[in-house]
Amino acid sequence: MGNYNHHEHSEGVSCEKCKAVYQTEEQEDKYENIREISIILVSGILLLIGIFFEKRMHSEGLSLLEYAIYLTAYFLVGTKFLRKAIQNIFKKNFFDENALLAIATIGAILIHEIPEAVLVMLLFRIGEFFQDLSIQKSRRRIRKILELKPSFANLKVNGEIKRVKPEEVKKGDIIVVRPGEKIPLDGVVIKGESLIDTSPITGESVPRLFKEGDNILAGVINKEGLLEIKVLKEFNESSITRILELVEKARERKANAEKFITKFAKYYTPAVLLIGAFIAFGLPFITDLSFKDSIYRSLVLLVIACPCALVISVPLSYFAGIGSSSKKGILIKGSNYLDLLNSVDVFLFDKTGTITKGVFKVKEVVTFNGFSKEEFVRIAALAEKHSNHPIAKAIKDYYRKPLNGIDPEEFQEKAGFGVLAKIEGKKIMVGSDRLLHEQGIEHELCKGDGTTVHVVIDNVYAGYLIISDEIREEAREVFKELKKLGIKKTGMLTGDEKFPAENIYKKLNLDFYKAELLPEEKVKEIERLRRENTVAFVGDGINDAAAIATSDVGIAMGAMGQDAAIESSDIVIMDDNLSKLVSAIKIAKKTRKIVWQNIIFAIGVKLIFLILGSLGVATMWEAVFADMGVSLIAIFNAMRIMRV
Length: 644
Fold this sequence. Notes:
Elements: H1 15-52, H2 54-59, H3 63-90, H4 97-110, H5 114-146, E1 153-157, E2 160-164, E3 174-177, E4 187-191, E5 194-197, H6 199-202, E6 208-210, E7 215-216, E8 221-222, E9 227-231, H7 239-250, H8 256-281, H9 283-286, H10 291-305, H11 308-327, E10 330-332, H12 335-340, E11 346-349, H13 351-355, E12 361-367, H14 373-383, H15 390-399, E13 410-414, E14 418-423, E15 426-431, H16 433-439, E16 451-457, E17 460-468, H17 475-484, E18 489-493, H18 498-508, E19 512-514, H19 519-530, E20 535-539, H20 545-550, E21 553-557, H21 563-568, E22 571-573, H22 579-614, H23 620-638
Parallel strand pairs: 11-18, 11-20, 18-19, 20-21, 21-22
Antiparallel strand pairs: 1-2, 1-3, 3-9, 4-7, 4-9, 5-6, 5-8, 10-22, 12-17, 13-14, 14-15, 15-16, 16-17
Helix pairs in contact: 1-3, 1-5, 3-4, 3-5, 4-5, 4-10, 5-11, 5-23, 8-10, 8-11, 10-22, 10-23, 11-22, 11-23, 14-15, 22-23
């Protein structure tokens, strides 16, 4: 079956090539499926002819015809597995399911149990065919994400529209998106409004209205209006590129259960071969069993022991879990992180842009020591001119006037504190209570419902601004659901001041909070909690990157989140909707439940049949059920994850 990772999307290869590759693979899959069905049908018909006419061919001396019919049926379905077994010998991988299958069926032919040998190979081929169909279905879900890559952008240059590749568009360029077209790059709407289908990125089925000033992500679809968008990120930094890279990398990381199965098969297979050899050649010396009967028992044992159900269904379960998550706008970078979500005891959250919307507005301005409100706001806006922090943006938006012509002579941004600048020869401080304490400036203590930003001009306290931020609508329900799902503690770690942090802590009924933390202090708090708990941290900013990387499961808000936070995370919520955390945990729990159902079911059934086979109670027919029957049930069980 085809592999869909044919080229790197960030290299500038057009989506048309992508689609051509996928269409070719779809055709190859259909051709392969028809071929497989044909082989299975022909082999099955030959087996039935052989069984139906077996006595007649014996009585009429047509043994060669009988052998020809059975062996044709056998090699039609079995050549593929025999070839793999031989190839693995040259790779020094002697003990796998293909080796067990080859030894068991060839042995059955040698002791003249040819119909059983054909049936084993036939049912094994049927089982693998169903496995391939399941993988194709999972792969198609991932392909839908990979096909999101836009193939062109309408670049506006000097009033004219020029169609170019998305990779050619630069940050700050203006692009035009017509109805029915995909948004090719991340940006902000500067003209027009339209309903946007965000389902390719977020999984949300209802279109959202986007208007002037709204940020918009690459990969979503413009439904009706004409939009002009100012590009905020070049294509190789855009959300859609990150999605493609994350999906590709997700398959490389194995969960503990997958690693266990790999190790299990490594030791299990040779152990089974040794037991089979003892039954075949040892039992006749210590019992009255004939060599033919003991060899038959041994071959039955080998067929029963084949670990296909485990080898196939466990990775398939995780693949299905990651596919189901990605469809809902939750990108999980590996099955190990999907597994770890089940073990999280403590869920920690940043405040700004995570629990809150991160959309700040100046709520109140208070001045002291004779400074006018207008001059106070102008100085604060100029000091924050080169900062990209949401609070800085709120101050600049509040000032409303252009900041061209005057640049700070000096500028220093201190993460978690604020900014230090020199403007028109004056030393300016704009920042938190902590910054003023550090600089030894006496100031007012404000207990307002919002973030307090103090301003100091030439070491004279000029006043403060209170900046408000809204709690996300879904936050209250999310924290209730986390408790229901077994999370022991929920907490907030924020660099914001104590009073607004405490307000949110009380409103959302969190277990604890810590305020006025620097990035390194967040890391220390997470390290302390990790000594006795499995910790997940959810954040969105550059200052959260270290905390996200330090936690057992780091989760980034992908729509508004900074690149550093997304890069250091293990899971990305593409539309910043906190309720997706609940979905991710439910998918993780369902995946683990199904994985262990399959492991326990497969091992349990096989142990029963291994005992029956060793005692001579089970025949090759029961062995076939114990092998491929269990495999098929496990595969179908794994695919239920797609319906979570």
